[in-house]
Specification:
Blueprint lengths: L7 E7 L5 H14 L3 E6 L2 E5 L9 E8 L2 E8 L9 H13 L1
Antiparallel strand pairs: 1-5, 2-3, 3-4, 4-5
Length: 99
């Protein structure tokens, strides 16, 4: 459970032997499969937002590739102080969808 002014969860994962471009294509497809709204893509990553409705809990998902690893970060977008593990679950669901 993340606690702080802006709860977040960060995890580094390997590229699973994929080239950076291949990883990003699969990551984009995984985000679409989870119905995340992709707002930005580049050669080194993407930014997406969960789409749980206006009154639901939402997060910004940032995927950035550096030094042969993917840095995955889920950050709460609301004013909550605790996320009750939701940011970690976002990253876990992404990894499962990616695989």
């Amino acid at each position: 459970m993340a606690v702080g002014f802006t709860p977040k969860y960060i995890e580094e994962v390997p590229l699973y032997g994929l080239k950076q471009e291949e990883y990003l294509v699969i990551a984009t497809e995984a985000a679409k499969e989870m119905e995340w709204e992709i707002s930005y893509t580049s050669k080194s990553g993407l930014i997406a937002f969960t789409n749980n409705g206006m009154f639901g809990w939402n997060a910004e998902i940032n995927i950035k590739i550096e030094n042969g690893t993917a840095n995955l970060k889920s950050t709460s977008t609301g004013n909550e102080i605790m996320d009750w593990g939701r940011n970690k679950k976002n990253i876990e669901k992404f990894i499962l969808s990616f695989k």
